[in-house]
Amino acid sequence: MSLELILVDDDPLNNKINSLIIHRVNPQIEVRSFYDPQKAIEVIMGEKLNSSKLLFLDLNMPVLDGWGFLEQLQQNNIPLNTVILTSSVDKRDQMRAEKYDLVKGFILKPLTKEKLENCLSEL
């Protein structure tokens, strides 16, 4: 079973760079990127989820931010392992993220090869 990573970030360039880093670490990882969080929720809700899917979620996005995204996952009982990938250095954001059972990690941008390898080894 191969790993699939879902990137949700309103910045398409961030998603592209993160995809390149992920494929550099492991070319076998399937990456799907969404810059529209509402579209991502709709797609995810229509899928069968399993432990081979991992979500990297930005917090600061217009219209539907990362917190709203997490709430929708939780309200719809979508058990998608999630890693927060954010530029927020506010400790309150990290503490808030830890209150969600589906949040398995918190990474500060930019994503690097080392941060990704550490995250994947912990999961």
Observed structural traits:
alpha/beta, Rossmann fold, 123 residues, five-stranded parallel beta sheet, 41% helix
How many domain regions? 1
* Shape, per Cα inertia axes: globular
What structural class is derived from the secondary structure elements? alpha/beta
Largest sheet: 5 strands, parallel
Low-pLDDT residue spans = none
User: How many DSSP H or I helices?
Assistant: 5
Distance between the termini: 15 Å
Going across the major beta sheet, what is the strand order? 2-1-3-4-5
CATH topology: Rossmann fold
The CATH architecture term is 3-Layer(aba) Sandwich
Strand residue percentage: 15-25%
Overall description:
The protein has helices spanning 12-25, 37-45, 66-75, 91-97, 113-122; strands at 4-8, 30-34, 53-57, 81-86, 103-108. It is an alpha/beta fold and 123 residues long. The chain has a single domain (4-122), classed as Rossmann fold. The protein has a five-stranded parallel β-sheet. The longest helix is centred in the first third of the chain and has 14 residues, at 12-25. It is globular. The chain starts with a strand and ends with a helix. The model has no long low-confidence stretch (mean pLDDT 93).
